[in-house]
Specification:
By secondary structure, the chain is α+β, with helices and mostly antiparallel strands. It is built from 8 helices and 4 strands. Strands 2-3-1-4 form a 4-stranded antiparallel sheet, sandwiched between helices. Strand 2 and strand 3 form a beta hairpin.
Amino acid sequence: MRKIKIAPGEYYHIYNRENTRQPIFLDNRDRARFLFLILYFQSPITVHSIGNHITHFLKHRVFELRKTFKIIASRNIELIMFTLMPNHFHLGLKEIQEGGISRYMQKILNAYTKYFNTKYKTSGHLFQGPYQAVHMENNTQLLHLSAYIHKNPKKIKEWSNKIDQYPWSSYQDYVKKNRWNELLKPEIILEQFNSKINYKKFIKTSTAKEDK
């Protein structure tokens, strides 16, 4: 049983890694697949032909899905921030409906594990047990989480000095244009800064450290 109670209206740090600390994303199609899942599984609405959406994204760098409005209107959680790393991921989520995060994460992890095992002809558990959840008890913790998640790509050599360009993180959506519109909800963080430039300065000076 999970040690913390997840309640509507509260914010949480959700994370998990590969079962043996090996990569869970072997190419950009894998990353795009997981990105699609965390964006579009916020709602119980069923999405078909996911592979076609991934192919379109890899070609045009945008997802085109007519159900987007319906997903926004009926979602169980709000995606606040994210970063996909080679062998793990970090999400900042707000619970909207009772049990929303639980259902959301179950759908994502099951769908991605099935995809990964089929593609790479493997079997069994991909992730290191159940996802981990940490409740953000106050605004200071939430701001620290934002810095922690967005600074994670610093440990990737080719991105260490340009994390605001890392495509598999929401950081560029905070300091540039939000690529996902209402599917990503950064306002709880950004409204605390006078400008995106000031948020970027906050990230640069934050003491939050990336994963070791």
